[in-house]
Amino acid sequence: LPPTVLGQDITPLTANAPTAVDVFDYHIDADPNLAPSSPWTDVYGRYPNRAPGKPRFMSCLVYLSEEWDHTQWGAPTRFVDVPDAENELRVYDVQAQPGRVVIMDQDVGHTVVAPNAAAGKRARYSLVWKLILHPKIHGQDMKDLAGGRKGLWPDTEFFGSASQVASR
């Protein structure tokens, strides 16, 4: 993300190295609907992420630890989803595994979960790369990253409310 999008304080790369004593809050990486006034909003305006024909804000999370036993040490990335029919908040954990890559929309609520005490002083390393994907054609459906070409990307594993939409 260039500074013209979200300002000087937001970097396109973020490194995480939580240890057992750390505490984190839920957050989103960015949302084009909340972008501050800037040359970016002068050109694209404010809009919901995934809007047809508009740039899509996504993050690529890579777990970097060479060794990580999530069954012993924990430290997943925790995602929060919209409330279900009973108004219960839904929470989903993606376990840290060496080399795992998670590609997500930047407006999805999530948090780093610190490793548990069994990890000792061991940090769980990850890197987040904040991306903006621009449509190739006017009005392109920005929900279809493969452009209708099956096999170009690995099968997507949807969870939460996205899994309900994907099955329709």
Description:
This protein is α+β, with helices and mostly antiparallel strands. It has four helices and seven strands. It has helices at residues 3-6, 39-44, 70-73, 161-166; strands spanning 13-16, 56-63, 77-81, 90-94, 101-105, 110-112, 126-133. The protein has a four-stranded antiparallel sheet, with no helix packed on it. A hairpin with an 8-residue loop joins strand 3 and strand 4. It is globular. The mean pLDDT is 84.
Q: Mean pLDDT, rounded to whole units?
A: 84
| Largest sheet features | 4 strands, antiparallel
- Computed over alpha carbons, the radius of gyration is 17 Å
Number of strands: 7
Strand line-up of the largest beta sheet? 1-7-2-5
Specify the number of helices: 4
Helix content estimate: 10-25%
User: What separation lies between the terminal Cα atoms?
Assistant: 33 Å
Order of helices and strands: HEHEHEEEEEH
> What is the subunit organization of this protein?
single chain
Percent strand equals 15-25%
SSE-based structural type: alpha+beta
Would you spell out the secondary-structure blueprint of this structure?
Layout lengths: L2 H4 L6 E4 L22 H6 L11 E8 L6 H4 L3 E5 L8 E5 L6 E5 L4 E3 L13 E8 L27 H6 L2
Antiparallel strand pairs: 1-7, 2-5, 2-7, 3-4, 3-6
List keywords for this structure.
168 residues; four-stranded antiparallel sheet; 4 helices
